[in-house]
């Protein structure tokens, strides 16, 4: 119970003070809502009216298309299928849809603010009240978090908090280890848990491609947000990350999968430096000798030279 209260607090603290009471009060101030279409039941039934009170179905489709063309290529950890519609995402990936709309509506700030509140309310409901176990929750949170600077006041502590939640979901869902090593299939009454919705295994070594990308994306974001906030990272490097990245590059399901190994190498090196220089120690109580620093810098220079030789030009040149 204490853990649930803490999780509720972590999510609700992201909402502005005047928006923590009821979402209805937020939507009441918006412009006259467009007519609603017919949408799917269950969880979506509670979020669809909120979305389409704020924007029309046509606007939602345009925002989804804009996200895919403008944003998705810069975040290769969540793949958006070509030609996908808002209605299709409503039925299969409602949290991902909310994150996409909250991101790509940045030119309509008033609507974006409302969509932002809908996302955070839905996150709290699914994460804590419903205890949802769905890959859509993780993938939606990842998209929201990666573009958080577009839809919330920049606060790195909020980003770190959400990154920690994403990391905890990745661990809970079991995608941080091989399918053959997780506990989803144990028939022990005390430990048995159902496999999260939307998660499947290719074999005993690999999860499905979306899950592998999600793990790599969680590692990327937790590493960089931990460095930005000088806090301990909730996800540390392990060899399975490289296996995930390499397997995706080999399969070549999407062009961006080829670059995931290189992104992983850079994040891994950042984690090494972060650990080596004890970056979480803000007071710098332990000083490193000049000789130790020089040894690291020499090794890093060799690493940089290797990257220039191996990395594709799209990753080594400023764009």
What does this structure look like?
It is found in: Nucleus. It comes from Fusarium pseudoanthophilum. GO terms for molecular function: DNA-binding transcription factor activity, RNA polymerase II-specific; transcription cis-regulatory region binding. With 319 residues, this protein is mainly α. It is built from 15 helices and no strands. The chain has helices at residues 2-12, 23-28, 43-54, 57-71, 86-92, 94-104, 109-129, 135-146, 148-151, 156-173, 209-229, 239-251, 260-276, 290-310, 313-316. The radius of gyration is 21 Å and the shape is globular. 35% of the residues are buried. Mean pLDDT is 81; it is low at 1-5, 15-45 and 185-191.
Attribute tags:
15 helices, mainly alpha, 61% helix, single chain, disordered N terminus, 319 residues
Structural class determined from secondary elements = mainly alpha
Largest sheet: none
Mean pLDDT metric: 81
Uncertain residue ranges:
1-5, 15-45, 185-191
**Coarse shape:** globular
Order of helices and strands: HHHHHHHHHHHHHHH
Q: Termini separation (Å)?
A: 48 Å
Supply Rg: 21 Å
> Count of DSSP helices?
15
Number of strands: 0
Strand content: under 5%
Keywords: DNA-binding, Nucleus, Transcription, Transcription regulation
Organism: Fusarium pseudoanthophilum
Protein name: C6 zinc finger domain-containing protein
GO molecular function, one term: transcription cis-regulatory region binding
């Amino acid at each position: 119970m204490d853990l649930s209260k803490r999780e509720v607090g972590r999510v609700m603290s992201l909402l502005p003070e005047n928006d923590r009471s009821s979402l209805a009060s937020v939507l009441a101030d918006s412009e006259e809502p467009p007519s609603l279409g017919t949408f799917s039941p269950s969880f979506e039934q509670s979020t669809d009216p909120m979305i389409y009170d704020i924007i029309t179905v046509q606007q939602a489709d345009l925002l989804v298309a804009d996200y895919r063309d403008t944003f998705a290529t810069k975040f290769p950890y969540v793949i958006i299928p070509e030609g996908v519609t808002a209605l299709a995402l409503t039925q299969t990936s409602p949290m991902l849809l909310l994150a996409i709309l909250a991101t790509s509506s940045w030119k309509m700030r008033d609507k974006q603010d409302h969509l932002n509140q809908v996302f955070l309310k839905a996150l709290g409901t699914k994460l804590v009240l419903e205890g949802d176990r769905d890959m859509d929750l993780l993938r939606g949170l990842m998209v929201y978090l990666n573009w958080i600077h577009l839809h919330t006041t920049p606060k790195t502590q909020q980003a770190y908090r959400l990154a920690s939640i994403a990391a905890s979901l990745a661990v809970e869902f079991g995608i941080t280890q091989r399918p053959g090593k997780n506990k989803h299939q144990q028939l022990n009454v005390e430990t048995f848990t159902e496999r999260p919705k939307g998660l499947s295994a290719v074999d005993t070594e690999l999860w499905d491609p979306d899950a592998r990308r999600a793990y790599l994306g969680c590692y990327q974001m937790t590493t960089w947000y931990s460095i930005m906030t000088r806090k301990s990272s909730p996800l540390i490097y392990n060899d399975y990350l490289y296996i995930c990245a390499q397997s995706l590059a080999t399969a070549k399901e999407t062009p961006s999968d080829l670059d995931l190994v290189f992104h992983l190498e850079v994040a891994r090196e950042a984690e090494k430096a972060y650990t080596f220089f004890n970056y979480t120690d803000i007071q710098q109580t332990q000083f490193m000798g000049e000789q130790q620093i020089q040894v690291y810098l020499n090794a890093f220079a060799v690493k940089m030279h290797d990257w220039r030789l191996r990395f594709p030009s799209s990753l080594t040149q400023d764009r």
